[in-house]
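Morning!

As promised:
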Amino acid sequence: MSLQQVRFAFPGWGPTVDGVDLEVEQGAFHCLVGRSGCGKTTLLKLAAGLLVPDSGRVVFHGRTHDAIGPGIGFVFQSPNLLEWHRVIDNVLLPVSLHHRPTEAERAQALQLLDQLGLAAHAQKYPRQLSGGQQSRVALARALILQPALLLLDEPFAALDAITREELQRDLLQMCRDRRTSVLFVTHDIAEAVYLADRVDVIDAGRIAQEISIALPARTGATRYSAAFVQYCAQVRAALHLEAVDA
Ligand SMILES: Nc1ncnc2c1ncn2[C@@H]1O[C@H](COP(=O)(O)OP(=O)(O)OP(=O)(O)O)[C@@H](O)[C@H]1O
């Protein structure tokens, strides 16, 4: 997926996205980091085709696209589950919009839930789940059609630190296994450095800096490594945040 010289302004306002070039290669994991209001969500909606650029192009699989199709999964900050559907049927929702799910598709949904530690909860309703479990269901729903590209807008922002770390680990694993390309918006510098191959620092609707992250396979120890701390410092500097002395 690539954004080429994308510009966008809300009617009556100055540019929110101001000439962005961004390329997400297959299997790559990119994080967009920036201050509140810098245009991250708008950029993600442009990438999804939920907004249309005033100029420039969004290209997905070689074509300019104009709507979220089966090749793209989207996860919002809140899980947005359908309260009157069981967990399994929430996961199968993107399938149900096209046809009645087959047994094979139900098995696939159950497998996804199993990978996310939710096999025992498939028949429950969303209100019977914790916030972290609901986020996992939203992730499973976004993955059910095996999208080539996953767009996530601060999906773990409302979660406690422990649940968040577990979900970050599971998300990385699932995207790596499927070679899913990811564009992930977050305010959290450590989250971005842990997840990303590349962090794009956004400022006033532009990419202010691109930072490639070359960490070995992420494990629990990664967050305490010198290289990890160094990358966080680099992102902080790009955001003009006060330096943290080692
Ligand atoms: N519908 C709208 N009409 C006018 N301006 C809007 C609209 N939606 C967003 N904006 C403005 O566009 C700018 C960028 O918003 P956006 O939601 O993309 O920022 P963000 O970086 O995702 O912020 P946050 O981190 O707080 O979620 C903000 O100044 C916001 O006020």
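Residues 168 and 208 are 25 Å apart (CA to CA).

Hope this helps with the figure draft.
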